[in-house]
Each structure stands twice: as structure tokens, then as C-alpha cells.
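note to self — DONT lose this again. spent like an hour looking for the file last time. sequence + predicted structure for the chain T wanted, 331 res
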Amino acid sequence: MHVTGVKESPHDQRVIGDDAIHTHRDKAASQLSIVDGVHPDLEPTFMGLAYRRRIHLLPQEHFDDVDLAMMTHATSTPEDKLLALAGTNNGLVVKRIQYIGRAAHAGGAPHLGINALNAAMLGLQGIHALRETFREADTVRIHPIITRGGDAVSVVPADVRMETFVRAKSVAAVQETERKVDRALKAGAMAIGAKVRITTLPGYLPLNNNVEMAQLWRANAARMVGDENVGHTGHRTSSTDMGDISQIIPAIQPYAGGATGVAHGAAFLVQDYDLAVVTPAKAMAMTVIDLLADGAAKAKEVVATAQLPLTKDAYLKLVRGFAREEEWEEG
């Protein structure tokens, strides 16, 4: 029985310790091995989150001998208390957008140009106009940024680039929403006469926490910090690569306090290292012991009864199906 545990970094940008608590099927349950380290391929930028991540290991069979997985993520939300049982998280797809126009002198001959920045702005307005069509139950989040707005103030912008995540609570909602986003982006190009290239990449799938594992973890968390100090996050509209793992392997992603400030903000800071790192590592280790005790009886029960949304083959087919590149121009 092979269990993998990871303590995620406070900023969710760098894996600082794969406190991977795991055992192999050919070893006794008492022979636990703790592996700490940083893999150079797991240090992503925000846009790289969708690519350089644990999920890249799935097609390479690195998870084929893993039966259960858990990861603890930092939180600075007071309502989460000291340790928190997680609910669910949004899934997402990644979009890179390039609007292609025609350069011209912005002061002397703007009529000879095709303003790609105007096309991009109309695409953004189209996305905003769609927001009233998003169902509250789908918890849709779309947050684009312009990464290139032009080359010089005196030149009609001919190459404008954007990036966005399209997030929603379910795979079906992600698929429906990203189709709407594509229409809005194409409409911006149509209005101005520009060309638009939309590259869509798989991001993360929604989180599917295993109930049995979560109950074991919660009991151990209560032993560590007291029952009154264990919270529950409910649904979160952020996303996690553990969502992908949880689609095909029984998994949990609880949270640990000890930080202040807004997550992903400049003021985010770990104030209590023991609470943020050491305490959740102990809670995960205790949960691993519970799972592997008595010949891994509880772990075997979890594996046998887990209701997983996808097989590995179905998962790979789904995420590969998200990947595509489209180009639209008039005529």
C-alpha cells in the first residue's frame, strides 16, 4: 500500500517540501519512508502551474503504484481556524490569447492600421457582458490579464496578448463557460477586423475529497489542536492540482493556519511555522499510521469503496481533449 503526502508551500508557487510519507507494497506497514526535496520541474510561474506540476507525472506512470494521496495547503483565513477540513475546489482551463492587427502611425495614419488592443478590449467587454449568464451554483471565475498591450505609444498596436483562467465548480460548467469566453474573444476580433489566436490548455480538475480519509484526518487534527480549533472550508473557487489526483486516486487536501495576509498577496506571511508546517505534517503522519495499521486494513477499505469520478484512461482523454489552438479572422 502506497500513500503519498505533501506539505504545500504557503504561496502555492514553489513546492518547498514534498514531505512524502509513503510505503511500498513490498514493505511492511511499519517501514515508512519520508522523502523531502524540491524537483526543479516543480517550480512554476502562475501560467506554468497548469504544466509543471505533479499531474505531468500521471501519464508517465509515476502514480500507478500510489493508492492514496494527501496534501496540506496553507490558509490565512481566520474562519478556517488552526486546521481545516477541505470541501471542494473549482476546476479550470488556461487560455492564452493573441490579437493580431496591423501597425501604422498612431498619430499620422491610424486609419491604415488595425488596432489589436481595441479588439482585445472588446473581447474583455464581451466576457464581462456574459457574467449575468453564469449560474451561482457553478461558481464561475474568469480573471484575464493583458500581458502585452503594444510596442510603442506612437504605433497602432498590432500584437496584443492576454492570459486567463476559466474556473468553475464542475467539468461541465468549465466546458460550457470556456465556449462562451471563446465567442466573446472572437467577437472582439470581428468588430475591429483583427485576427485572434486562442490557445486552450488543460489546467486543474475539481477537487474530490475522499470522505473516509477526511474523517481520519479530522480526528487526528482534533488531537493535535483541539476539536474546537478544526474548521471546514466548504467550497472554494480557487483550484489545485490535487483536484486531478483526486479524480483517479482517493485523496484529501486539508488546510493549516499560521499565516496572515491575503493569499497570493504581497502581505501574505507565515507567522507561525510550527502551525503552518510541523503540525499538519504530524496530522498527515498520524493519518498514514491509521491507514496502514493492521495490515493496511483501513487503507484497503478506502481503496475498495472509493467512488472515483474517472479512471486514469478517462482522465487522460478528458484533459487532452481540452488542449487545442484556434485562429479566427474575417473572410
